[in-house]
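Moderator note: this is an archived Q&A kept for reference. The question asked for a predicted structure of one protein chain; the sequence and the answer are reproduced below.
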Amino acid sequence: MEESASATLDDAAQVFAQVRPRLFGIAYRMLGSAADAEDVLQEVWLRWQKADRSVVENPAAYLATTTTRLAINATRTAYARRETYIGPWLPEPIDTTADPQLGAERAAALEVAVLMLLEKLTPTERAAYVLREAFDYPYAQIADIIQTTEVTARQYVSRARKHLAAEKRKPVSEAEQKKLLSAFLAAAQAGDLPALEQLFATDVVSYSDGGGVARAARSAIYGGPTLAKVIRAYQPFFWTDADIVYTQVNGSLAAVLSRDGAVYGVISLTTTDEGIDQILWMLNPGKLTAALPSS
């Protein structure tokens, strides 16, 4: 009897392991936090162990449904928690060179800037968008997962697409992205005001997430001249003894900054043919430890 129960649990673990990358992909895109996504998956696993698995016809669908519904609830809590967060909140960066499965099916809804835009959706709208755009679920299944009608599910996805399209600009090529990132890092390290201003789009904005732990701007900084001056003011201590490595963070090129072998920052940009229009500084050490294996 004990052997049979053990074998059954082993089978459950094998099924869970097979679909785990997709489950993590759903939860991470919903929450923008690797640590919170892992908490959701831990709860999914506990529920899967206790479930009557003999009546589950499609384990992958069952687990995806459970993950999404738990993530919707967790997202509501996370949204409320972020209202008291110190300074701008940014999603946890994920080194996708170390975790290529995260974007293996589809890279949609993975970039840090896109995850920030998804914060403006309701949790249910976000779930519908993630399931459709990142994992290509049919609308009927999305409706079943989020417990609504197929018509409403389509409306959620359509609204989310329109919202993101209105705010997201057409990016430059990967080669141009790297060129702009390299030029920005060189100008920032030198504290070169004219060079920085030349790289910025007219309406450039900078967000720094220090979480009240790391030294960082407590609010967004707008406009090239102002931003350039702030970057120069930080230059003497921020870049001292910095080791900079380029890597793929959330599927896009970013710079990982370390000092004495410890990661202390991740910088990513959004760029258009007008130049750099958004700079994202992830400086909260707790988030870096949770998300980047190299830290």
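Archived answer notes: The longest strand covers residues 262-272.
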